[in-house]
Amino acid sequence: MFTLRPVCGEDFLDREELIQEMVETLASPTERVGFALVGRRRMGKTSVFLEVVRRLQRNPRVVSVYSSLWELVEGTPQEFARQLIRDALEAFQEQGALPLKVRARNLLSAPLGLLRDILREVRISLKLREELEVLLVLARGQEKSDPGELISRALGLPEGLAREAGVRCALFLDEFPTILELREGGKALGEGIVRKLRTKYERMEGLVLSISGSVRSTMEAVALSPASAFWRQFVVREVGPLPAEAVRELLQRNLNCPITEEAFSALWEFTQGIPFYVQFLGRELARKVGQTITEAEVREAAEEFLKEEGGVLFQEEWQRLSPKERKIAWALARGHSAPSVIAREIEESPNAVSRYLQYLEEEGLVERTGRGAWQPTDPVFARWLAQRSL
């Protein structure tokens, strides 16, 4: 079935070479390198991570822990620590590597006295038990702690659990650069927190870390540039659109009726192979039973998507932009690619347009296609934007 959620298992499609490379590398006891997945939002990075996690679960010598920083709401070190603790404990518990009678969620809310009683029954060393107790108290905000120390201790938990269980831990942190935005007392922690994590990580032996990020500039800040804390710690892999053959296979597998070649071309033109949009249009087209899907029906479904769903998907991105960024993004969506042309269109100076284009590039919304030429990174967002009025 078509789905708007990350896929894995039998529903997973394409990326097989990447999946195999990751599974073999992360399961190997002699390898000490993880992966950094880079790709725009809605390209399927989360699906790749979840499929690797699923396959690694077949290996009793590896415990896979998946945690998404995209799910953070408060954006505080305490929330990040709570989430990582919960995800680590639940992963070890579910894979039988941690005999624990209660769920991790209950540990995170248990009173201190009850927490100590629960932990006394867990078959782990006294040292790890005491560390876990302190970490749970700190993550709940019941005692003050240095944010960097809290986060590095949270990262050390799956390493400690792996050592106790005699297994290897593969930790996946989805949208890892979000850690730069964690705030304490209204102030962003920034790159200092990443350097602290790197110091902690380089001393670990039982844990191998993999990360993902949607904005290349922030991925460069944490891992991809020579000045970044995690430079040369990952195998870097790009996750891009699905190839046309994979899109065709997905449609053939899930549609209830045939689709004409012209209709497929229209769907490809709209989605550009971006998995989320392929899944969304496929879901709409799957409602048509017993008839051949035509080009007109695909274009109608695409327009309906922009009208009904576009605002839900894109309004937040639009609202985050400054007034000048909105004007420039709108001009780009209308097909103006050169800064000088955009400047005339929105009545701004070329220097200001060039400066704001760099801001938009850092946010992952535009990309340079050549000397003096730019375009939106997401073609569907661009189509939605082009239909708006400023």
Mean pLDDT level: 89
Domain count, please report it. 3
Note the main sheet.
Answer: 5 strands, parallel
Can you say what the CATH homologous superfamily of the largest domain is? P-loop containing nucleotide triphosphate hydrolases
Architecture of the largest domain in CATH?
Answer: 3-Layer(aba) Sandwich
- Please provide the count of β strands: 9
Shape: globular
Text of the CATH class of the largest domain: Alpha Beta
Which stretches are poorly predicted, pLDDT < 50 over at least 5 residues?
Answer: none
Distance between the termini: 38 Å
- Estimated structural class: alpha/beta
Helical stretch count? Answer: 18
Spatial sequence of strands, sheet with the most strands = 2-3-6-1-7
**CATH topology title of the largest domain:** Rossmann fold
Percent of residues in beta strands = 5-15%
Q: How helical, in percent, are the residues?
A: 40-55%
Rg, Å, rounded:
23 Å
Structure described in brief:
The chain is an alpha/beta fold and 390 residues long. The protein has helices spanning 16-27, 45-56, 77-94, 104-107, 112-120, 126-139, 147-165, 191-201, 216-224, 244-254, 261-271, 275-285, 295-308, 310-320, 323-333, 339-346, 350-362, 379-386, and strands at residues 34-38, 62-68, 168-174, 183-184, 187-188, 207-213, 234-238, 366-370, 373-376. The longest helix is centred in the middle third of the chain and has 19 residues, at 147-165.
